[in-house]
């Protein structure tokens, strides 16, 4: 995880004690080499688990999802924050509450793309309080699919979402674990 670690050290910015900016390589401008490294690392960690689908949520999960899907040779499905416009398309739907925005959004996936036969890896860029992840796991449950695990690029451990979800039995692999952003400084494990 050499590239990602270097970028975290040199190109991330602590915005507040809660928020880290990674706009120059993940969230706005995307560094393709970093994304390839991330995808390969998730594939390595979940090798042998027979994942046949990668699931994320738009927008910033898509780049992470694509390189992961490429490395696992599986399709990437991303939950949409608007119901697909095709009128007769049947969807699974769940709600994600955002603490940062203090609002809920509904997310949707078409039933035809997530089924009981699927062995799913969920990926996302950030894990904070875990609301996004909970919303995605509900879609997997509704489909009767099997959740193999979760791959997260940056887990903000101090916000507690990872702990709660691991306690519920979900395997979560985080590439970077941020223990605190106190004093405007990034404190992380690799
Ligand atoms: P949670 O999902 O873990 O509970 O966290 P929260 O509600 O706080 O996250 C809301 C949005 O903010 C998510 O993106 C999440 O990825 C992002 N986010 C959370 N913490 C940070 C952070 O420290 N830095 C940055 N840059 N983003 C953070 P989203 O609303 O799904 O937006 P999108 O960018 O994927 O479209
Ligand atoms: Na985001
Ligand atoms: Na995200």
TrEMBL record:
<feature type="binding site">
    <location>
        <position position="27"/>
    </location>
    <ligand>
        <name>xanthine</name>
    </ligand>
</feature>
<dbReference type="InterPro" id="IPR000836">
    <property type="entry name" value="PRTase_dom"/>
</dbReference>
<dbReference type="GO" id="GO:0006166">
    <property type="term" value="P:purine ribonucleoside salvage"/>
</dbReference>
<feature type="binding site">
    <location>
        <position position="156"/>
    </location>
    <ligand>
        <name>xanthine</name>
    </ligand>
</feature>
<dbReference type="GO" id="GO:0000310">
    <property type="term" value="F:xanthine phosphoribosyltransferase activity"/>
</dbReference>
<comment type="similarity">
    <text>Belongs to the purine/pyrimidine phosphoribosyltransferase family. Xpt subfamily.</text>
</comment>
<dbReference type="Pfam" id="PF00156">
    <property type="entry name" value="Pribosyltran"/>
</dbReference>
<protein>
    <recommendedName>
        <fullName>Xanthine phosphoribosyltransferase</fullName>
        <ecNumber>2.4.2.22</ecNumber>
    </recommendedName>
</protein>
<feature type="binding site">
    <location>
        <begin position="128"/>
        <end position="132"/>
    </location>
    <ligand>
        <name>5-phospho-alpha-D-ribose 1-diphosphate</name>
    </ligand>
</feature>
<dbReference type="InterPro" id="IPR050118">
    <property type="entry name" value="Pur/Pyrimidine_PRTase"/>
</dbReference>
<dbReference type="InterPro" id="IPR029057">
    <property type="entry name" value="PRTase-like"/>
</dbReference>
<dbReference type="GO" id="GO:0005737">
    <property type="term" value="C:cytoplasm"/>
</dbReference>
<comment type="subunit">
    <text>Homodimer.</text>
</comment>
<dbReference type="GO" id="GO:0032265">
    <property type="term" value="P:XMP salvage"/>
</dbReference>
<dbReference type="GO" id="GO:0046110">
    <property type="term" value="P:xanthine metabolic process"/>
</dbReference>
<comment type="pathway">
    <text>Purine metabolism; XMP biosynthesis via salvage pathway; XMP from xanthine: step 1/1.</text>
</comment>
<keyword id="KW-0808">Transferase</keyword>
<keyword id="KW-0660">Purine salvage</keyword>
<keyword id="KW-0328">Glycosyltransferase</keyword>
<feature type="domain" description="Phosphoribosyltransferase">
    <location>
        <begin position="48"/>
        <end position="156"/>
    </location>
</feature>
<keyword id="KW-0963">Cytoplasm</keyword>
<feature type="binding site">
    <location>
        <position position="20"/>
    </location>
    <ligand>
        <name>xanthine</name>
    </ligand>
</feature>
<dbReference type="InterPro" id="IPR010079">
    <property type="entry name" value="Xanthine_PRibTrfase"/>
</dbReference>
<comment type="function">
    <text>Converts the preformed base xanthine, a product of nucleic acid breakdown, to xanthosine 5'-monophosphate (XMP), so it can be reused for RNA or DNA synthesis.</text>
</comment>
